[in-house]
Amino acid sequence: MTRAATRTPPAVLDAALREIPDPEVPVVSIADLGILREVVLDEPRGEARVTITPTYSGCPAMDVIRSHVEHVCRRQGWHPVVSLQLSPPWTTDWMTGTGRRRLLEFGIAPPGAAGTGDHAPVGLTLRQRVVTCPQCGSDDTEELAHFGSTACKALRRCLACREPFDEFKAI
Asked: Are the C-beta atoms of 12 and 39 separated by less than 8 Å?
């Protein structure tokens, strides 16, 4: 049997890549986080060119994500060519609604909007940032540590139910 004969259809590969879980927060996929930027298939060559963007430069999870993408491609009969794209930089605005909902259901406060996504000046607001407790829904929360279990999360506590929780920071 030739390699092309064992290759899965493009839609099957695309779906499998979109289901790869984030290694640090496995309740969301790399597609839901906006890390999976592009999948381009060259069917005659059997190549899957996959572009991923780290949540921040130096993110230690990128090696694991790259390896998982390569594994999924090979398992589906495609030759992986994975590239890292640093510009434009990742933003939490790239997260899907499904990803935000899954974070909340898991007990992590999802990020709010980070901004316009362009490089225009950032407006100054003089209002307090409100982070809702994913356990009880109270807005009465406080930040305990700016960095939580990973650099993209902060450790917070709800003053109503007293439960600690992670907040996925807006970037």
From this structure: no
Distances (CA, A) of 54 to 61, 110, 117: 8, 18, 16
- Write out the two tokens for 133: 């407790």
Find the farthest-apart pair of alpha carbons in the chain and give their distance in angstroms, rounded: 65
C-alpha 38: how far from chain center: 14
Displacement of CA 33 from its chain's centroid (Å): 2
- 95's CB contacts (< 8 A; 6+ apart) are 28, 32, 33, 34, 110, 111
pLDDT digits (tens, 9 = 90+) for 9-66: 999 999 999 999 999 999 999 999 999 999 999 999 999 999 999 988 888 899 999 9
Question: How many residues belong to the chain?
Answer: 171
pLDDT interval class at 1 (50, 70, 90) = very low
Write down the pLDDT at residue 112.
Answer: 81
* pTM to 2 decimal places: 0.81
**54 phi-psi bin (left φ>0, alpha ψ -120 to 50, beta other):** beta
Are 109 and 167 in contact, with CB atoms under 8 Å apart?
Answer: yes
